[in-house]
Structure formats: C-alpha cells, structure tokens
Write a structure and sequence with these properties.
This protein has 147 residues and is mostly beta strands. It has one domain: Jelly Rolls (Sandwich). It has one helix and twelve strands; from the N terminus they run H-E-E-E-E-E-E-E-E-E-E-E-E. The strands form three sheets. It has a five-stranded antiparallel beta sheet with strand order 3-1-12-6-9, with no helix packed on it. It has a five-stranded antiparallel beta sheet with strand order 4-5-10-7-8, with no helix packed on it. It has a two-stranded antiparallel ribbon with strand order 2-11. A hairpin with a 2-residue loop joins strand 7 and strand 8. The radius of gyration is 18 Å and the shape is elongated.
C-alpha cells in the first residue's frame, strides 16, 4: 500500500511543545503572600520562576494546575490558599486546625492561558509549613493542549 502501515512521522512529536513544572516549598510562609515554591524538581520549558513563585505562560493553551499546601498549625488557626491567574482567584482551599496541628489545603484547576498570563498560589491568611526538602507543600502544572 501507500506508505508504511501505522507509521507516524517523527515530526508529529517534535512539534508539540512541552511545558511542565513541579516544585516544593522549602521555607515557611505566613499572612498574605505569594508562596515561593523554591525546591524545583521539574521545569520543562522554564516557565516557572522559583524566585517569584509564578508560572508565566509562554505557549497559549489549556493548562492543568494543582497545589497542596500543608498548614503549620497548633494555635487554633486556619489557613487559606488561593490559586490566582493574573491576580484573580481561580481556586481556593482551606485547612483548619481542629485537634491536629497539621492539615492540607489543596485544589486543582484547568485554565486557558494566553502568553504572559501568570499563575501562582498565595496565602490568604494563616501559616504554611515549609518542610525543607520533604516537599510537604507542592505546586505543579502542565500544558494539556496548545492553542
């Protein structure tokens, strides 16, 4: 027949952009601040910046993000962690200190991003546990479908 059966051109794969990151939180944070996940494990495409804690879109498309933030409790407080896109909250999570000292706030989103859009996780009150190199608190995301 015409051409090899079932063969797919190698170019099909090489033209698909690869964007993915995964980072942990080394240092504790509290109050109202962007969480700087500075223990970067994966950063395909170099779109995540550990210094600012922000993912900046370089390739427009649909992305998946997830975050898990361990609350540092013990004083009867709560912690809120929001995922933001360009300053607008797109997902929220809360951890409450009942009888335990630690609790998780986590959520996931699927968002369309344009070039230059920023995605990050910020505290909206409470204390986030650092964890040194243990990666108790993590932030990750990847490109599902480029435009």
């Amino acid at each position: 027949g015409p051409g090899a059966t079932g063969a797919v051109s190698a170019a099909t794969y090489s033209t698909v952009p690869r964007v993915a990151f995964y980072a942990g939180l080394k240092n504790p944070h509290e109050g109202y601040e962007v969480l700087k996940f500075d223990d970067v494990v994966t950063n395909l495409g170099n779109s995540y910046d550990a210094a600012s804690g922000k993912f900046t879109c370089a390739i427009p498309g649909t992305y998946f993000f997830t975050y898990h933030v361990l609350m540092r409790g013990g004083d009867g407080t709560s912690m809120w962690a929001d995922l933001c896109k360009n300053g607008q909250v797109r997902a929220s999570a809360i951890a409450q200190d009942a009888d335990q000292n630690y609790d998780y706030a986590s959520n996931s989103v699927v968002l369309h991003l344009d070039s230059g859009d920023e995605v990050y996780v910020k505290l909206d009150g409470g204390k986030a546990h650092g964890g040194n190199n243990n990666k108790y608190s993590t932030f990750s995301g990847f490109l599902l479908y480029p435009d």
